Amino acid sequence: MPALLQTAPVSEFAVTVEGLTKRFGDRTVIDNVKLEVPRGCAFGYLGPNGAGKTTLIRTLLGHTSATSGTMTLLGLPVPDRRSEALARIGAIVDEPRFHGMLSGRENLRVLAAAREPEAHARIDPALERVGLDGRADDPVSKYSMGMRQRLGVAACLLGDPELMILDEPMNGLDPAGMLEFRNLLRSFVDEGRTVVLSSHLLDEVERTCDAVAIVDRGRVVVQGPIGSITAGAARKIEIGCSDPPSARRLVATDPALARAVVGDVTDGRFSFELPSGVEGEAFTGDINRRLVTAGIAVHHLELSRPSLEDRFLEITSTLGASS
Questions:
Q1: Packing angle between helix 145-157 and helix 175-190, nearest 10 degrees?
Q2: Res. 323: pLDDT tops 70
Q3: Under the phi-then-psi rule, with left for phi > 0, alpha for psi from -120 to 50, and beta for the rest, what region is 5?
Q4: Where are the alpha helices (DSSP H) in 122-243?
Q5: Is the bond preceding 79 in cis, omega lying within 30 degrees of 0?
Q6: Is the peptide bond before 306 cis (omega within 30 degrees of 0)?
Q7: Three-state secondary structure string covering 71-117
Q8: 262: helix, coil or strand?
Q9: pLDDT of residue 146
Q10: Which DSSP symbol is given to 207?
Q11: Pairing mode, strands 42-46 and 211-216
Q12: Are strands 194-199 and 42-46 parallel, antiparallel or unpaired?
């Protein structure tokens, strides 16, 4: 792909959204959203089904109009300069749609005809990059869902985009395909592109993205680097030992765990969440010493690393419980 060109105006954010609201009649789908996507990163937009993820993408791209609020793409205000912004953006909304009777290459030729002349020269490199060069001349009707997703990314590359917005791009991929796709997305970021992806595959998002926003019921409830978001999740300790009931009683009487819920013994193990403010590594060593002193042999003691899924479920469950 040709080197990316810097064009004015320059902004540190590829996407900014302020006070964005979208209503369909009496139903609010996007609720006063503020969003900032830094340039040159992979950014995940996460939420349960019906949280408004696809509607926000459609609104950004001008497929539907906002009820209120402001937006910029690559420093350009939209919808005022939408055409100028879209010329520098590649996007997949919902699942990619192509002419089934045409081959992958022919579909890209149709799309390239609507773009600048240089787009035609990008067809073969794009097909090779997404791993479809060997199937480029097969009818798209013969493609699997994963292959159509790849063809959708190839279509995005025809414009040599600075920003890629992908709605559930890993649907239909097997584990090997997900690994290849993850590496592909990271290679785009390494080139200086910004990739925004909406997904419900939390483990893949954690492996792929640098930062995320979690949305629930149309509201962004937390956003930022993944490390800072997972740092807010509860850490768990799992214990396996020679006398789990006695160990559980000993742990439950620790003053530091006054607010913790100690789980039941299952298969010789039990676990509990550390309250906020308790240093996990030091506490784990202290618990181990206390159990051994009490004559309990410890064969498993694990302090879990909070995952993005843990934090996601914690946030969305809390919102559901408080509604």
A1: 10
A2: no
A3: beta
A4: 123-129, 145-157, 175-190, 202-208, 226-230
A5: yes
A6: no
A7: EEECCEEECCCHHHHHCCEEEECCCCCCCCCCEHHHHHHHHHCCCCC
A8: strand
A9: 86
A10: H
A11: parallel
A12: parallel
Give the separation between CA 1 and CA 162, rounded to whole angstroms: 12
What is the mean pLDDT of the segment spanning 71-80? Answer: 95
CA neighbor of 21 nearest in space, from 64, 75, 50: 64
pTM for the full predicted model: 0.79
Q: Among 95, 22, 79, which Cα is nearest to 52's?
A: 22
Question: For residues 161 and 132, what is the distance between their CA atoms, to the nearest angstrom?
Answer: 19
Alpha-carbon torsion angle 137, 142, 144, 146, nearest 10: 20
Closest CA to 215 of 91, 1, 21, 33: 33
- Position 47: which residue type? G
Structure tokens at 38: 């830094």
Chain centre to alpha carbon of residue 38: 14
In the predicted structure, residue 251 carries a pLDDT above the cut 90: no
Residue 321: C-alpha distances to residues 33, 231, 308, 318 (Å): 21, 22, 20, 5
Residue 19, amino acid: G
